[in-house]
Amino acid sequence: MFRTVLTAAALFAATPLIAEPIKFAVTDIEGLEALQQEFAAFETSLEAATGLDVELFPVSSRTAAVEAINQGQVDLVLTGPAEYVVIKELTDAQIVVSWQRPNYYAQIVTLSEGNIGSVTDLKDKIVTFGSVGSTSQHLGPAQVLADFGLTYGNDYEPKIISRNVAIEALIRGDVQAVGMNEGHLRKIRVAFPEQSFTVVARGRDLPNDILVTRKDLDAAALEKIANAFLNDADSLMAALLKGDDNQKYEGGFFLTATNDADYDYVRDMYKTIGVDTSSFVGN
Fold this sequence. Notes:
This protein has helices at about 1-15, 30-50, 60-70, 80-90, 135-145, 165-170, 180-190, 220-230, 235-240, 265-270, and strands spanning about 20-25, 55, 75-80, 95-100, 105-110, 125-130, 155-160, 175-180, 195-205, 210-215, 255. By secondary structure, it is α/β, with parallel strands linked by helices.
């Protein structure tokens, strides 16, 4: 009997513990079904590259992502630059790798035949922005105007209006300019083929989307994940681009030499609109 107990104990000790899966979340996708549609192929590719079990973990909001990180419920979170600076402050999440979006910059769009020929012409005029708190539709365009010397809410009147509605208002003359990114302008030119638009101001390339990890993730697992983006970038990118919404990353790279200071420009954007990074804009 004593020998049997010892044998069972020895077998138990020799059996490796089953590692918990690495849970992967994306802040701008709600629901597991949508997350699977975009990232199922990437999940499989990351598993193959790391030898780890990866599990997609849906979050309902940016705030929910913060709570999940702080409670140890999620290991990896893909987020945008505006969200990152808040997540960093609230969780001390650590950077794994940034995901480049080519031609990702903010710009200020007006009518080609309108009465706005330069940024200075927008003084005392109405400028609209898209999704509140968005890097490329709100914070970025506001910073572009600030870089050209116009103070948010003082030198012009900012309004948050959905993009197509804002363009219709621009064509009617109700507003004088719309902030957006380069991809949005391409879509607008298709949607309004009879109208000519002009960019009166462009900003620098925006900081990239970024994959972060909770600060206490197992060091060995983190090393495998980081090495995967370094050594298996082509296969990971090919899998990522199987998602329709992920086409924004086409032609981009996974950038492993990314620092928190690279996002100070985003922190400046928060200052420009008069808020701090202790909470998400619009929450």
